[in-house]
Amino acid sequence: MSHVIKILHTTFGLFGNVFGILLFLAPLITFKRIIMKRSTEKFSGVPYLMSLFNCLFSAWYGLPFVSRNNTLLTVLASIGGGLEAIYVLIFIIFAPKREKLKISGILFVVLSIFSIVALVSVLTLHGNKRKLLCGLAFAITCIMMFGAPLTVMRQVIKSKSVEYMPFLLSLSVFNSSTSWAIYGILGKDPFIIVPNAIGTLLGSVQLILYAIYRDNKGEGKKDDMDASIETGLGKPQEKKLDRIQNEIQKNIPEKNMEASKMDYEL
């Protein structure tokens, strides 16, 4: 690796770290909402599990005894893994019982698979064979991480609303994956190039969807309320009618009392 290429390689690795950290911090808004409402609503916990899965293998693949010149990958993955673990824990706490069991089960599978691959690579494999196994595991989990938002993208197309697809998350996916794809090209590492090229493509699609549906945030709830007010069939109108009805019922006994009093006096 020439001096210039090495500098560029390190530079894009640093860019990848900056954008990657922003990517891992992007869900803070979502989890602030979850904590405040004490509910996961329609948010999916799968993308955070896939991110954690990828962080474990990214950190492992970047270690010097697995692959060379990828220490920056391990640094980012270690930070990201810690954050993703916190997100998954929060999701498990506030998710409905059924979703809680589902996420816990997937988490157990994720940790089991990583433990098996890590032990096999250390105890039985060496050199290129170790790099091949860990590289494939890293690439596959990376593709799974970038592919996890496909369910959210489908929901956006179906509902024509980007309420559950935060813009910062989509932008961070695009920037991070693009930086790491260039980093992989400069380092001639196909295990980094391929998944991040796919991530760049999917990030582009998310940004396009956001541009199309950016004005539709929670339209369904707004439409329901507007329909209620305009047609006079909604809850605001029902509450008004109930209040009038209560006042009428309250006044009826008073009028009956007055009528009875007049009859008595007569």
Automatic annotation (TrEMBL):
Main location: membrane
GO CC term (a single one): plasma membrane
Regions annotated as coiled coil: none
Compartments it resides in: Cell membrane; Endomembrane system
UniProt-listed Gene3D superfamilies: 1.20.1280.290
GO aspect biological process, one term: protein homooligomerization
Keywords associated with the record: Membrane, Repeat, Sugar transport, Transmembrane, Transmembrane helix, Transport
Membrane topology type: Multi-pass membrane protein
Chain segments annotated as transmembrane: 12-31, 43-63, 75-94, 106-126, 132-152, 164-186, 192-213
Pfam families: MtN3_slv
Keyword Magnesium tagged: no
Molecular function as annotated in GO: sugar transmembrane transporter activity
Function text: Mediates both low-affinity uptake and efflux of sugar across the membrane.
Similarity comment: family membership: Belongs to the SWEET sugar transporter family.
Name by which UniProt lists this protein: Bidirectional sugar transporter SWEET
Organism: Nicotiana attenuata (Coyote tobacco)
Gene: SWEET1_4
